[in-house]
Structure formats: C-alpha cells, structure tokens
Specification:
globular, two-stranded antiparallel ribbon, Spore Coat Polysaccharide Biosynthesis Protein SpsA, Chain A, binds cytidine-5'-monophosphate, alpha/beta, 7 helices
C-alpha cells in the first residue's frame, strides 16, 4: 500500500492584501516558506511515498528551486494547478503513479503549515479502516443559519452545535474512491471547496478525525503572527 499526498498550492491569496498580493503559500514563517513547513510535516512520515504539489505555471521554477534547495527531489513532484482548488487537486490526482486499489491519497492545503504528524498518521489509519476521512474539529460557538438581506443578514435557524464540525485538511481516501468522486463531480459540473463534498455526493462515507485549531488556514492579514505564536509555543 502506498500513501501519496497532494498539496494544492496554486492559489493567488487575494484575501492577504497586506502582503501586496503575494501568494500566501510563499510567505515566510520562521525563515521558511509556508509551503516548506507543510512539506516537512508530511516528509517526516516515512510511509509517505510521494508528495505532489500543484502550482501556478508562473511559480513552477520557484517551487522546483525550493525542492532542490531542501533536497526533496526523491519524494516531491511538481504539477501544474488549475483555476480552482478542485482543478488543482484533479491535475495532481491524474499524475499519481498508483498501482493498487488500497493506495491512499491525502489532500492538504499548502497554507495550513501547522499540521502535526500525529494527526496525519491518524488520518491515514482512518482511511485504511473506513475508506475516506477528513480532519475536523467540533464547533464551540453557537451556529446560526442566516438569510442575506440588503442590510446584512437575518437569522433563520439555530443549528445544534453538536451536529457541526469545522472541516480542515488533510482530507483523503483510497485512490479509486476519490477518483470516482472527482469523475462524478466533473460529469455533473459540480465544484466543491473540499474533497469531502465530492466524496459525500458520491455516497462515500467520510470518517471524521479530531483536529485542533493550530491547524488553521493562513488566510488573512494577522494570521502569520498567529502562526508564529503557535510555533513559539
Ligand atoms: O483558496 P483557499 O484559501 O481555500 O485555498 C486553499 C488551498 O488551495 C491553498 O493552498 C491554495 O494555494 C490552493 N489552491 C490551488 N489552486 C487554486 C486555488 C487554490 O491549489 N486555483
């Protein structure tokens, strides 16, 4: 059984305005690009066979240079991403040299640099047992459903928070299952914001592995400081 990893890193990072629009996966945290932190977390697990990073064509050379600088050529491969996250993942899925129906793929947002090896291991174990799994953590706030109005929003319902988890990554499955989910989504022209939404609509049960708030997605100005704080702790 092989375990592959896909790191979609082809986003533009438009919400990170204070960086002058630099893609957030290349901002530095403790002197290393965010992408490198994510790569190191997965490369620390010996059973991971290969990591496939999806990048924008204009950033291919810079990522290849990073791979060479950190001597990761044996395990890290670069593929060209697409216009949305799903297309970036689909391109990498097509490139995986998988040969067995038991092979597993994990997809992890390159911009979640604080993923820990134990959570990755637990996700792999959950996929081995259940077929598909994602990392998520329970909601602590009370969750409201709203209807958008011209003035903002108005509450239409309160959703019991014990029924809610916040989806993170890694998200993954046995490779034939995730390939089927992606093929069905493409056939129906469905675009989701994560892999689980594609697996769910293909009626593939997705198991939840407990995550934690450290594994957050670097998204907005201020998030780099929060990541530095966690790293210092
Ligand atoms: O857009 P969002 O912040 O949700 O992106 C999550 C991950 O998906 C990021 O690592 C980003 O680089 C990646 N992405 C991608 N291709 C796109 C858009 C986003 O690989 N076209």
């Amino acid at each position: 059984m092989s375990v592959f990893v896909i790191l979609p890193a082809a986003g533009i990072g438009t919400r990170m305005a204070s960086t002058g629009g630099a893609p957030k996966q290349f901002l530095t945290l403790r002197g290393l690009p965010i992408l490198q932190h994510s790569l190191q977390a997965f490369l620390s697990i010996p059973r991971i066979t290969g990591v496939y990073v999806s990048v924008r064509p204009s950033e291919e050379a810079r990522v290849l240079a990073l791979v060479s600088e950190h001597r990761m050529e044996d395990k890290v491969h670069v593929v060209i991403g697409g216009d949305n996250r799903q297309d970036s993942v689909a391109n990498a899925l097509a490139a995986l040299p998988s040969t067995s129906d038991d092979d597993i793929v994990l997809v992890h947002d390159a911009v979640r640099p604080l993923i820990d090896p134990q959570t990755i291991e637990r996700t792999i174990a959950a996929i081995e047992k259940h077929g598909a799994a994602i990392v998520a953590f329970p909601a602590v706030d009370t969750i409201k459903q709203v209807e958008r109005t011209a003035d903002g929003a108005i509450i239409t319902a309160t959703i019991p928070r014990e029924l809610i988890v916040h989806a993170q990554t890694p998200q993954g499955a046995k490779i034939p299952l995730i390939r089927r989910a992606f093929a069905e989504a493409a056939a129906d022209e469905f675009t989701g914001t994560d892999e689980a939404s594609l697996l769910e609509r293909a009626n593939i049960p997705v198991f939840v592995v407990p995550g934690n708030q450290r594994n957050f997605k670097v998204t907005q100005p201020g998030d780099l400081e929060i990541a530095e704080f966690y790293l210092a702790g």
